[in-house]
Design brief:
Radius of gyration: 26 Å
Helix content: 10-25%
CATH architecture of the domain at 3-140: 2-Layer Sandwich
Distance between the termini: 71 Å
Structural class: alpha/beta
Shape: flat
Order of helices and strands: HEEHEEEEHEEE
Strand content: 25-35%
Strand order of the largest sheet: 1-2-5-4-3
């Protein structure tokens, strides 16, 4: 398939999706050789089933599923689905938005490989997937507090983990910082040493600054 054929297939598929799923699609565009389709949250199972099964689409592979946090938005999270059509050699990115208390329908019934991907988004962002067969943490410990990829999650976390020789087990303790985070205002002595260091005397002196008129 030539580049022209791929471009034509992309345009035709995009037009077909926009027309057929007009009640479910909020916005769509073609950017950088990929389709980007924003859909209603409750329509995601219907949309992905159509994209997989329709002969005009045949996006049979879910390549990835990830989350994004836009803290300033009312519905702060985006869930993004990356699909590939091997037959047409084109891709589509499907997006939806969700708030902290807005469950997203699970698509494990459409693409079984979404199982672990949805668990990762739940673990990292706290987006709940309704209908998921086993929604639990996958990258952090089961007792982990919070969701570490949220924009408002503290950089230090809440606890630190260490192995205790006396108890012979791993224990969790509140984070203790020996020094607070610094604010880089360029006025603090931390921002640079003002005195000369050994070897600085070998550096050429800057040219004198001319004073007065010409």
């Amino acid at each position: 398939m030539t580049q022209t054929d791929t471009s034509d297939a992309l345009t035709q598929t995009w037009a077909h999706i926009a027309q057929t799923l007009s009640d479910d699609v909020i916005a769509s565009e073609i950017a950088r050789g990929e389709m980007i389709v924003t859909v209603k949250r409750d329509s995601i199972v219907k949309v992905l089933t159509f994209l997989r099964d329709a002969t005009a689409c045949e996006f049979t592979q879910l390549v990835d599923l990830c989350g994004v946090d836009y803290l300033e938005r009312a519905e702060r999270f985006e869930v993004v689905y990356h699909l590939l059509s091997m037959k047409k050699n084109i891709r589509v990115r499907v997006k939806l938005t969700a708030g902290e208390d807005m469950p997203v329908p699970s698509v494990t019934g459409v693409f079984p490989c979404a199982d672990w991907l949805e668990r990762e988004v739940w673990d990292m962002y706290g987006v709940f997937f309704s209908g998921h067969p086993d929604l639990r943490r996958i990258l952090t410990d089961y007792g982990f507090d919070g969701h570490p990829l949220r924009k408002d999650f503290p950089l230090t976390g809440y606890v630190e983990v260490r192995y205790d020789e006396d108890q012979k087990r791993v224990i969790y303790e509140p984070v203790k910082l020996t020094q607070d985070f610094r604010t880089f205002d360029f006025l603090s002595p931390w921002e640079g040493i003002q005195r000369l260091l050994p070897g600085d005397e070998k550096a050429p002196a800057p040219p004198p600054v001319k004073q007065g008129g010409a």
